[in-house]
Amino acid sequence: MMKKRICIYPQDVEIITGKSERYGRKVIKTIKDNLKKEKHQLVTVEEFCNYMGLDISRVEGLIH
Q1: Which residues pair with 7 in a beta bridge?
Q2: CB within 8 Å of 19: residues ≥ 6 apart
Q3: In which domain of life is the source organism classified (predicted)?
């Protein structure tokens, strides 16, 4: 059984969007700011999908 990750990282955003890792870091920081998360807290795949307006099942198929 394939395990699903909970958290999303800049490299994942790069794969999903086709943009740079730097863009991925910016997106994750923006999501953290919007959700009032602290620096050490992670962004979940679900939070990322909600923010970007993406279908979570399609995103989970792109990241391992």
Answers
A1: 44
A2: 13
A3: Bacteria
Alpha carbon distance 37, 54 (integer Å): 21
Confidence band for 5, pLDDT divided at 50, 70 and 90: confident
Is there a contact between 49 and 31 (Cβ–Cβ < 8 Å)?
A: no
Tell me the two tokens of residue 32.
């953290």
Buried b (16+ CB within 10 A) or exposed e, 33-50: eeeeeeeeeebbbebbbe
Backbone angles phi, psi at 44, to 5 degrees: -85, 160
Q: What are the structure tokens assigned to 11, written together?
A: 């490299």
What count of other Cβ atoms lies within 10 Å of the Cβ of residue 13? 25
The 3-state DSSP class for residue 61 equals: coil
